[in-house]
Amino acid sequence: MRGTDLRPPVNETTPVSRNFHVMAKPIGPICNLDCSYCYYLEKETLYPKGGNFRMRPEVLENYIRQYIQSQDSPEVTFAWQGGEPTLLGLDYFREVVRLQQQHGDGRKINNTLQTNGTRLDAAWCRFFRQQGFLIGLSLDGPRELHDLHRRSKSGAPTFDLVMRGLNLLKAHEVEFNTLSVVSRESATQALKVYEFLREVGSGFLQFIPLVERLAQGADKAGGLTFAAPAAAALEDSSAVTPWSVPAEAYGDFLIEIFNVWVRRDVGRVFVQMFDVSLGIWSGHGPGICLFVPDCGEALAIEHNGDLFSCDHFVYPKFKLGNVMNDNIAALVNSAQQRHFGASKSTSLPAYCRNCDVRFACHGECPKHRFIRTPEGEPGLNYLCAGYQKFFRHIDPFMKQMTALMQSRRAPALIMGMLEKGEVPGIASPSARSPIND
User: Fold this and answer.
1) Which of 88, 114, 164, 277: disulfide with 81, CB 3.0–4.6 Å?
2) Residue 311 among the catalytic residues
3) Phi, psi of 42 (to 5 degrees)
4) What predicted TM-score, i.e. pTM, was given to this entire model?
């Protein structure tokens, strides 16, 4: 049962009192691939009687209408994910656009869609281009790294199919970015991954650390392979999957790419983690939920209309309601969701509260807070050591780029300053190699 919300009721046309974003799963966890690290494929077990995972027309329209009405902004952005959303077919998304236009009330509607790229063709790309969709393409790096975990249901490699999709997106001038999962294996080949993505034409890169735990006890009994985020804290990280990235290795991965990017590619290649960091250092905020003090503004909706607190918390405990029975704005403002968001900061262990990079990290995602601090307190983020290493390393660079912005100059000027040895706290090129600062 949801907790009592003491705020006045929110009616269907009242905008929500805070910004929020919903990741829509119109086909649930259904996918044509069988990636070994995917945490979402097993969500099928949450709906054992729901053989059809296609979001029904009435649910789709109710979601689109409510979501637009709940946003107090002239622009509204929809995010479509899965599973693999292209399995729904092109006509499904033509209907999405029609419904958005019908209920848009003069707003500018934006759409993003995350895909594995294996089913893209010219028709899809023409549609994306005509309707202005921003496409997220899952691509883990060069062939040997991508095919390591991203395989078809039959176990076949998928790299060639994904590259075909990428080239179609480029040929039709569809705006896209790449999402690359950083595993134990790829973390040791940072520059190989970065240079590959850069060379194939990705101008915007997202690097997602792979961190999953094997289910134990109740989770395992429920038919789940991966542990729920609320599972008990561990004394160490021994229960993470063999392909999860070690914490410091993730920090090293980011640092190695950053050292090349900051000297060659600022303003040319956009790496989400670096843009986010600059937003933090310059006082504009991170722009993503990972590094805000409190969360709760990035929710997920399943194929049947169930709304959950977060994409990483799609478990019965974190279900807020259903859009066929409840109002989205009211659910976002509910006591249950406000408590979920606030617990990100209230549950921080003392080790985090006293950390010199807390201003940048804020404990990152609660999903990853399953190890203990050196003092034995639970709730430390598994990736803590990596984030500490990365944020401390980039501090002098970020301060310099912030100073450039404050003087109304482009952050990209740091590249020339580094070449001349003019950045305080950074050795000149003659003193150090660019990748060993």
Assistant:
1) 114
2) yes
3) -75, -5
4) 0.90
